[in-house]
Specification:
Layout (H helix, E strand, L loop, with lengths): L3 E6 L2 H12 L7 E5 L6 H12 L13 E4 L7 E6 L7 H6 L9 E6 L12 E8 L26 E8 L15
Parallel strand pairs: 2-5, 2-6, 4-5
Antiparallel strand pairs: 1-7, 3-4, 6-7
């Protein structure tokens, strides 16, 4: 039935490292669906993935171009980073983007892809990033502001839920990502 892991990611640095570690489990043709509210850490995770895959170019949110291709510098798969937020029609529109890369030979990471790109592949890794504190929680147990409040919301720990769907993920131990 695929595999599953839930981990707490305390810092953006650890989120980037999770991306680098996850890259080690990915192979050409993999589809990764990233979900989470704005500022949850989706791009930070994808940046780590890009580093782990050894691709060219700075990984930034592709909001205005919809998709950005990062070719491999190490003979591995390209990283195709898609922001599906503005993709109304889902898959057809994805194909219309005319990406100069073969999706079966790439790792495709889609932000905001729920309900839009699932039909790209029966096998996919869904990564949901949530604020561990439920978003509104602030400060220490006695109500005093926690030190990281000055750093803004991004200092809150995140809960990352990874779910591998399809035969591709049956034998992948996602739990290794939870080990520090």
């Amino acid at each position: 039935m695929g595999s599953h892991a839930t981990l707490t990611v305390p810092t953006p640095e650890r989120m980037g490292r999770l991306g680098r570690e996850l890259a080690g489990l990915l192979r050409p043709g993999d589809l990764v669906l990233l979900s989470g509210e704005l500022g949850a850490g989706k791009t930070t995770l994808t940046r780590g993935l890009g580093e782990g895959l050894g691709v060219r170019g700075a990984v930034t949110s592709p909001t205005f171009v919809i998709a950005r291709v990062h070719p491999s510098l190490v003979g591995g798969p390209a990283l195709v980073h898609v922001d599906a937020y503005r993709l109304g029609g889902g898959l057809d529109e994805m194909e219309d983007l005319d990406l100069d890369v073969s999706l079966p030979e790439s790792v495709v990471v889609v932000e905001w892809g729920e309900g839009k790109v699932e039909q790209l592949s029966e096998d996919r890794l869904e990564v949901r990033i949530e604020r561990a504190l439920g978003g509104a929680a602030r400060g220490g147990p006695d109500g005093t502001p926690a030190a990281e409040d000055e750093a803004g919301d991004d200092a809150d720990p995140r809960r990352v839920v990874l779910t591998g769907l399809g035969r591709r993920w049956d034998t992948v131990e996602l739990a290794v990502l939870a080990e520090d």
